[in-house]
Amino acid sequence: MLEDVKRTDLFCDYYEKWITVYKEGAIRKVTLAKYHMTHRWLKRLIPNLKICDLTRISYQQLINDYAVCHERQTTMDFHHQLKGAIMDAVDEGLLDRDPTRKAIIKGKAPCAKKIKYINQFELHSLLDELELKPEVSWEWLIMLIAKTGLRFSEALALTPKDFDFSHQSISISKTWDYKGDGGFLPTKNRSSVRKVQIDWQTVIQFSELIKNLPEDEPIFVSGKVYNSTVNDILMRYCKKAKVPVISIHGLRHTHASILLFAGVSIASVARRLGHSSMNTTQRTYLHIIQELENRDVDLVMRSLSGLS
């Protein structure tokens, strides 16, 4: 498909073909949708720009125009998605040089961030308010994510067969396509295939809860699932417990934060969360790690001051 591309073709058309050749079937649907969104922005911002006219100045102007209504990080993601296609165009001789070189990434000031996690005391208060009845409910899902740090899609995909009560663990090997038509999907990455240890209280509760359910069918799914539904339920319980309102994904952040403050190593937290590398964990929880480092400095100074 890309063999017939000429330097005088429109860049937005080239980018659309590039997505088809290099990205379709190679990345997750949710990531592919972001590339298609970038293509729609190209059609809006540079509908008539030819490949041969893509210079450092025209590229910088494109980035500037996109940055007018997007935050810097979003603009950076836009830039990275374009850069892959542009570098291939350079390799194919469609461009003489890399127009993305030394591009300046701008963007709107970030809006006020929502609270992403709550502390251990607040989590106890929240879990105490959950109405955990004898049958499966969203309250049980909320409790399970709080205690395991699973992604929402991972928790939805759990079947009774994934629970190993004798070894106190849950096997994570798939996700649920709640944003699409339903059904099982692969995990986010290879590192996301893992076993997550659970406490004895959770073992006892879930062994009773799921004992009569079909082995291979999702525990929490019956029909179309919307994360907004679960977030609304969680919000209601947060308000009832008088703790900051967080999202269902915020429970995952809460779980990781509590482990880090408890002294669990970054490597162990990364494995438990299914992160592809410790770098992801460090970036996501940088503020907590810095706080822990400050605490470590105080401990070092107290230890040194006791030496004579």
Question: What is the compact description of this entry?
Answer:
The chain contains 13 helices and five strands. The strands form two sheets. Strands 1-2-5 form a three-stranded antiparallel sheet, with no helix packed on it. The chain has a two-stranded antiparallel ribbon with strand order 3-4.
Distance between the termini: 75 Å
Radius of gyration, taken over Cα atoms and rounded to an integer in Å: 24 Å
The oligomeric state is single chain
Across the major sheet, the strand order is 1-2-5
User: Which structural class should the secondary elements be placed in?
Assistant: mainly alpha
CATH domain fold name of the largest domain: hpI Integrase, Chain A
Residue windows where pLDDT falls under 50 for at least 5 positions: none
Q: Give the amount of beta strand, in percent.
A: under 5%
Residue-averaged pLDDT: 92
Q: Tally of extended strands?
A: 5
Write the H/E string, N to C.
HHHHHHHEEEEEHHHHHH
| CATH-derived architecture of the largest domain | Orthogonal Bundle
What is the overall number of helices?
Answer: 13
Number of domains: 2
CATH class category name of the largest domain: Mainly Alpha
Largest sheet: 3 strands, antiparallel
CATH superfamily of the largest domain: Intergrase catalytic core
Shape: globular
The level of helicity is: 40-55%
